[in-house]
Write a structure and sequence with these properties.
3-stranded mixed beta sheet; 13 helices; alpha/beta; N-(1-d-carboxylethyl)-l-norvaline Dehydrogenase, domain 2; binds nicotinamide-adenine-dinucleotide; 6-stranded parallel beta sheet; NAD(P)-bd_dom_sf; Rossmann fold; NADP binding; disordered N terminus; 3-hydroxyisobutyrate dehydrogenase activity; NAD; single chain
């Protein structure tokens, strides 16, 4: 009998997907075939050349073809538009692949919950697969190192693994090839993994800006930056972004800021995640005061040459060089 992990399709070989697919190819049965698809075809060739020694890698022409060949699909693409294209396109999407209700679909992109519910329901109705939102996160700023080391956390829009639900065990097994099972959070239902992810990112992006502003204010008021960091670390303001992603250069040696704001998580990406937080706020009737304020700042930082393509903590450079006129 063919084990389900013998046939896996991976769609979207970008910064995250390339590293995640690498772990799948290394850990799946060496006799099994990994089918890969990305709109940027060259990356598929690079991936095949780099990892073909671990077992067969076949480049396919469309998500439809990827699905036709596989019992498991994993995808991670930029946003909801691309997710809809991968799954719902009437010519090339998974929705027009041969029916297979046992096909497991793990969609890992960070998108809004409503889109994932719509795509999941459409695929369920078409009988082309069981779609589960499985966005990823790490306790680092930016997910690529976690993707590379296979230690990702998965926020899963499905119930906990149970023997009455065979697909849940398959999901756990595939996720374990890319992540740390101690960091798998089963959020209960379609779209809930993304809802959890969006709430977390609402906080992390907003807190990063708050840290940058608080540090800038303290430093300008005459407090030594390292001393200020220690005070916060030992007081009620203590938080992960201040401790690890500290935006002031030279305060935390391993922070992106102390390393020329190396990535990390791009400044431009902060807008996307804050935007999802703002939209989720209005969709649930909670006014997203913090995320809206942070969004406005990051919108400007994202076009500031000091911050473009650097870690989002470079917002510190943006606020300390563009807000002089706020002094009274
Ligand atoms: P990326 O832009 O590096 O990669 C996206 C890949 O998808 C690219 O290779 C692109 O060619 C491909 N693609 C685009 N449209 C496609 C389509 N229609 N069909 C097939 N392939 C398509 O982005 P990334 O950094 O890998 O992020 C991917 C997703 O993961 C995003 O939703 C992002 O928010 C989320 N995420 C990123 C990080 C991170 O640190 N980069 C961390 C957690 C979550």
């Amino acid at each position: 009998m063919t084990d389900f992990v013998d046939n896996v399709a991976f769609i979207g070989l970008g910064a995250m997907g390339y590293a995640m697919a690498k772990n799948i190819r290394k850990k799946m049965a060496p006799t099994g075939t990994l089918y890969v698809f990305d709109v940027f075809g060259r990356v598929c060739e690079k991936f095949r050349d780099e990892f073909k020694s671990f077992g067969p890698i076949v480049i396919v022409e469309s998500p439809k073809e990827a699905a036709a060949m596989s019992q498991t699909i994993i995808s991670i693409v930029p946003g909801a538009k691309e997710v809809r294209d991968v799954y719902l396109n009437n010519n090339s999407g998974v929705i027009v692949a041969p029916k297979n209700e046992d096909r497991l679909i793990m969609e890992c992109s960070t998108i809004d919950s409503q889109s994932s519910r719509e795509v999941g329901q459409a695929l369920g109705t078409a009988g082309t697969g069981k779609y589960i939102d499985t966005p990823v996160s790490t306790r680092m700023q930016g997910g690529v190192p976690g993707a590379d080391s296979g230690t990702l956390s998965f926020l899963i829009g499905h119930s906990k693994p149970s023997d009455t639900d065979p697909i849940s065990h398959r999901l756990e097994k595939v996720a374990t090839m890319m992540g740390n099972p101690k960091k798998f959070f089963y959020c209960g239902k379609l779209g809930a993994g993304l809802a959890a992810k969006i709430s977390n990112n609402y906080l992390s992006c907003s807190i990063l800006l708050a840290v940058a502003e608080a540090m800038a204010i303290g430093i300008r008021s005459g407090v030594d930056e390292k001393l200020l960091h220690e005070v916060i670390q030992n007081s009620t303001g203590q938080n992960f972004m201040a401790d690890v992603v500290q935006p002031v250069p030279g305060v935390v040696p391993d922070a992106p800021s102390s390393n020329n704001y190396r990535l990390g998580f791009k400044t431009q990406m902060m807008i996307k995640d804050l935007g999802l937080g703002v939209d989720a706020g209005y969709a649930t009737g909670i006014k997203p005061t913090m995320a809206e304020a942070a969004y406005r700042v990051y919108e400007n930082a994202a076009v500031d040459p000091k911050c473009i393509d650097r870690d989002g903590s470079s917002v510190y450079l943006h606020i300390t060089t563009t807000q002089e006129d706020h002094q009274e």
